[in-house]
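Sample intake sheet
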Amino acid sequence: MTAQKQSALGAQPFWRGLPAAQLAKLAQLCRHVVVAPGQRLFEEDSPARRFWVIDAGQVALDVFVPGRGRVTVERLGRGDVLGLSWMLPPHTWRFGAVATQQIQAFEFDAPAFGAAYDALP
């Protein structure tokens, strides 16, 4: 973990205001990733085991509609959290997601994040 990564994570609206010690723990649980335009991050109905805090770029959430194909239902960008389906049973993606622009994001392993949260005093 670097101080730069911790600082960048702390600048995200989702985490803003967290104490430095908690940011340091979060920084250990994630990795900063770059996703190319057109790359799918996940498919609807598949197991949800990750989530992202978007640092730059744009992602489209979509759903498959018979006879129409994939239909975009929402676009997410800087500061948004992508992939909270891991939190609720049955822990599967409710939508698909594709990068519509190159994105940079903090990617978290959801089970590791959940275990760390459960271990908090």
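Comment: The two ends are 23 Å apart (CA to CA). The first helix runs from residue 3 to 10.
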